[in-house]
Amino acid sequence: MIDKVIYVLFAIYGLSGVLYFIRLIKGPSIVDSILAADCVSLDVALIALLLSIYYKNSFLAVGALFLVLWAFILDVFAAKYLTKGEVGT
Amino acid sequence: MILTLMGLILLFMGAVCDLLGAMGMHRFNTFYLRLHAATVGTVGGKFYPILGVAFIAAEKGLWPVVGISVLTALLVLITTPVGSHALAYAASKARIVEMELDEFRGEGDA
């Protein structure tokens, strides 16, 4: 039963990821693209965790942890270099 | 059985929040409003579903997935507000996106 339900969840989260990705491509400013990249990476982390319970494999879940940490590092370092004025506008 | 049911309820609630956040990214027209939509889509749409994944994995007996899921959910809950606050500060400080009504500089009526 749960395998059929996970197909529906893959579809919904994949659609959300595509919508976030469209905003990443056409974002008017650079901070919009960074925000959308943050959301896309967290979405991919959630899909990786769903895949790990779909295939009953524990090794697939390890990537989710690093994707979440990567999103945080992206936010903080982009904010740092935008504030100092080295990149952006 | 009850753990799987709780996990599925959390996953579907999170799917609704995630879709609303993804639609809000296109409906709102300013960066500061899109920040609100992204935070709804992240805390409501990623934190609760990851806890739901932990419940389902506990029912199936995948204990490493339970540990990684709970750790990832706590990391999302802590790091997402910090990240969005830092981005809003950078956008305001570097004047990438101008505020329409800035209460701190004494412009406007508010």
Short description:
The complex is a heterodimer of chains A (89) and B (110). Chain A has 89 residues and is mainly alpha-helical.
- Tell me, rounded to a whole number, the average pLDDT of chain A: 90
Radius of gyration of chain A: 16 Å
Distance between the termini of chain A: 50 Å
Strand content of chain B: under 5%
Number of helices of chain B: 3
**Percentage of residues in helical conformation of chain A:** over 70%
Mean pLDDT of chain B: 88
Biggest pleated-sheet summary of chain A: none
List SSEs of chain B in N-to-C order: HHH
What does this 3D model show about the protein?
The complex is a heterodimer of chains A (89) and B (110). Helices cover 82% and strands 0% of the residues of chain A. Chain A starts with a helix and ends in a 5-residue tail after the last helix. Chain A has 89 residues and is mainly α. Chain A has one domain. In chain A, helix 2 packs antiparallel against helix 3 (62-84). Chain A is elongated, with a radius of gyration of 16 Å. Chain A is built from 3 helices and no strands. Chain B has one domain (2-93). Helix content of chain B is 79%, strand content 0%. Chain B has 3 helices and no strands. In chain B, 43% of the residues are buried. Chains A and B meet through helix 1, helix 2 and helix 3 of A and helix 1, helix 2 and helix 3 of B.
